[in-house]
Here is the input.
Amino acid sequence: MAGTDATRSPDWSPDGPVTILVAPQMGENIGAAARAMWNFGLRRMRVVNPRDGWPNSRAIANASGAGGVLDEAQLYETTEAAVADLHRVYATTARPRGLTKQVLTPEAAMAEAHGLIAQGARVGFLYGPERSGLENADVVLAQAIVSVPVNPAFASLNLGQCVLLLSAEWRRQIDRTPPEQLHLPGAELALAEDVTRMLEHLEAELDAAGFFHLEHKRPTMVETLRNIFRRAPLTDRDVQTLRGVIRALANGPRRRG
Amino acid sequence: MAGTDATRSPDWSPDGPVTILVAPQMGENIGAAARAMWNFGLRRMRVVNPRDGWPNSRAIANASGAGGVLDEAQLYETTEAAVADLHRVYATTARPRGLTKQVLTPEAAMAEAHGLIAQGARVGFLYGPERSGLENADVVLAQAIVSVPVNPAFASLNLGQCVLLLSAEWRRQIDRTPPEQLHLPGAELALAEDVTRMLEHLEAELDAAGFFHLEHKRPTMVETLRNIFRRAPLTDRDVQTLRGVIRALANGPRRRG
Here is the structure.
């Protein structure tokens, strides 16, 4: 599962929100968070009071190609220190437990973050420890809460998955990959006139074979065939292949015999 | 990281595309795929020729609360059999290796899938084995390719992550969670007139304290203060708390002394 060609997306940039892991427990999850970030072009990680110290060898082992995110990560003793130089902070959590707070979808939060960052603001997202999530003392440092709308019958996103979904949403809103592209390895799209000639060839052979024996049905049949072969995007080579197929069927051994 | 209240999202439904894992290798990844699906309300999994047989105990152990997805999963010997009763098939892969094919973003593919399913069509997404991805023989069974636009400098999504991102995108497009909600545990939003009285109280105490000693600056200062306290959504209890704060500051020991 890889992605687009670098040349198609010239806008991958080091700017973006800061990912702040508060008291993360498992090194594997720190590594997974780094990979999730870097998959979607986010680079800036802060780590608050990690359970197993810093640097964390299991995090490094699990980050594989995203080790640079860990190399550049900043270590803090308190969440307050980790957010001190930010202008806007979001807390990713499901249950604000008694706090009056705005709760945003990832889509709404990232739209806001894009707007603020475009204005020059520094923005961060807080992620709590795996088992317990963010404490209220951390949540009150945030202006708003972000909550992924998951299936209420099965609401279990782990730390790496949560960072992945938010990082993907950050990227989705600015990604310039065309929604639909035609992958044409070593081929060119056929010209309309080449498809027309192929269809004329097909229709002539079908006439010869007596396919259109009910003359009043001919126009509809021809229209249907033309529509089938215009619906798929055909390459010049596809058209050559199909003309070969028509010839083979029209002149093949069975007809000759 | 959990989600919204079930009562807010009454539209979780068993309908949706089929997730087809082709020759998956690790049971852990099959379990992760089940969790990813069920997190976003997708329930129908098909498994083609899994390396370690079926059922897979590591898949079951890793699926935790999403074990029902595995219980109901259907086993096939070939990809062709697994897609036979579907009307439209998408292949998740990065490199079509020589095949002319439409390449869609997850957003575009899921928009199309929603439209087709609404028309009564059955839709499936193929995911290849972890190491090698889908083979061309599988990709040609699909009408289009889906590729997640990841960072070209780090394009490494694993099977579970890929299923997570596509399942989340399926859900995102139909989710009815309000983008922005005010979480108000045991409180009500303050009425405008209560905020007005609090501001009048504040301004009166500031007048008494000589805060507005430059009369020509008074209107701007008052406007700024009113704007600060109108910007945040305040509850009735917040307003009571703030009035207590004003009283304490205005009448506290330091002033008396």
The first strand of chain A starts at residue 18 and ends at 22. The longest helix of chain A spans residues 192-208. The radius of gyration of chain A is 29 Å.
